[in-house]
Amino acid sequence: MTASRQKKEQNTPLRAVLFDMDGVLYDSMPMHAEAWVQAMHRHGLTMTDEQVYMNEGRTGEGTIDIFTLEQWGREATAEEVEAIYRTKSDIFNELDEAPAMKGADEVLAEVKGEGLLPLIVTGSGQRSLLSRLERSYPGYFNSDLMVTAYDVKRGKPNPEPYLKGLEKAGAALGRGHALKPSEALVVENAPLGVQAGKAAGIRVMAVNTGPLPDDVLREAGADWVLPDMYALLDWFKNTEL
Ligand code: CA
Predict the structure, then answer these.
(1) CA 230 to CA 219: how far, in whole Å?
(2) Measured in angstroms, how far is the CA atom of residue 25 from the centroid of ligand 1?
(3) Residue 91 CA, ligand 1 centroid: distance in Å
């Protein structure tokens, strides 16, 4: 190995980019907010738009428990969780399909062009996720490059989803072990997602595509906060990684 090659490798430890999905690859949070607020209301619970954004990234069960604990003084039963989450999913599915996030395809192309591996780490458990991704972002993802609600016991803000992402990245790159946290970058839009990435020891880029103030993302631990995916595209083009 030449000295310059060695230097370059020391300067480019990044190997994978772990993308959150809702609010990062899809402009889906307004629909999720509407579905959550309505579903909770139908089941006798109150949830505001802002609370949806503050709890974004949690599993359905985790979200429901927070509100039944606060408003009913107890965790939801398994039947209640199922019923409320089914209502939420039904409402969500009746709404227009969320559009792909503007600029996200350019970001993925840039990431791949830089020789980095893109993965998805989402708390979503929609069965149709992969076919949807294949339509929006053809050729980038398969189940080996995705962590969903089915892959983890504990959702964000627990680090488990992102630790699983490091494992899947390591496997996809032919290593016998997980990537080191320093070899990855997380892209998140939500405070709990930022916390999950930081808890896994990974640097976190927050892209603030929703209504919360930037400070909420900084306080959650984001290393950088950018306004949208076009700003992230510029950042990837102009930053030595
Ligand atoms: Ca998100």
Answers:
(1) 23
(2) 9
(3) 19
- Going from the Cα of 123 to the center of ligand 1, the distance in angstroms, rounded, reads 8
pLDDT in tens, 123-166: 887 777 888 899 999 999 999 999 998 899 998 999 999 999 99
Task: Count the neighbouring beta carbons within 10 Å of the beta carbon of residue 97.
Answer: 13
Q: Which two tokens stand for residue 67?
A: 């509100």
Q: Which amino acid is at 9?
A: E
Peptide bond into 161 cis (omega under 30): no
Rounded Cα distance between 213 and 215, Å, is 5
Backbone φ and ψ of 203, nearest 5°? -70, 140
Q: Tell whether the model's pLDDT for residue 57 goes beyond 90.
A: no
Contact between residue 107 and residue 25 where contact means Cβ atoms under 8 Å apart = no
C-alpha Rg value of the chain to the nearest Å: 18
Distance 241 CA to ligand 1 centre (A): 23
- The span from the CA of 101 to the CA of 22, in Å, is 9
**For residues 86 and 59, what is the distance between their CA atoms, to the nearest angstrom?**
13
What number of CA atoms fall less than 13 Å from residue 30's CA on the CB side?
Answer: 10
- Looking at the fold, whether 83 and 116 belong to one and the same domain comes out as no
58 pLDDT band, cuts 50/70/90, is confident
What is the rounded distance in angstroms from the CA atom of residue 67 to the CA atom of residue 81? 11
Q: Which residue, of 94, 127, 150, is where some domain finishes?
A: 94
Range of the domain at 20: 16-28+99-237
Q: Is 51 exposed, middle or buried (0-12, 13-18, 19+ CB in 10 A)?
A: middle
Q: What is the pTM of this model?
A: 0.90
